[in-house]
Amino acid sequence: MRSITTFDIQYAHRFYKFKGEAQYLHGHTGVLTIEVEDTVNPGVNMVFPCNEIQKTAWNVIKNFDHALILREDDPLLPAILAVYEQQGIKDGAPTNQMKGPAFKTELATAYPDCRLVVTKETMTVEGMIKIVYELLKDKLNIARITFTSGVNAASQEYPVSGTMDRCPLCGIALKDGVCPKCGYRKQK
Prior knowledge:
Elements: E1 2-13, E2 26-37, H1 50-61, E3 67-71, H2 76-87, E4 103-104, E5 108-111, E6 116-119, H3 125-136, E7 142-149, E8 152-157
Parallel strand pairs: 1-3, 3-6
Antiparallel strand pairs: 1-2, 2-7, 4-5, 5-6, 7-8
């Protein structure tokens, strides 16, 4: 069975070297849907609490919200960073509170202090799915990710093998046999 949750993400990007309107800097509201698969945990009668999926995923996904997403070879990138430097916001600002931890993967690097994500590939709906899966595959049993942005949509299914040990009292994943939320300890 699956537990499903969604996120709204506001972001700006462009398709560098694309011939069409998308080559210009523009913004979107994207909707990211994550489906987590496992057995129904009999203690809480659910696969995984959706609010816990949101907390786990939002910790990294919030780096994309209200962010500029550019490809690493886009000539706008150094110009944007120069303007941020002139404004004194390249290394953050007191009003920039909604940010996750910086990350670097093969596909993307997040610079949360300046609300910037630099990608290896053009940021398409398919690209967002690949990046999100890479960031969350070890934290959640992801069975499917869907991302829509404007009139564009893509979806990818992933094989789920095994089950995660979850707390019978609150449903979240155990870490070394202990629930990080309520302190439950799995009997050995």
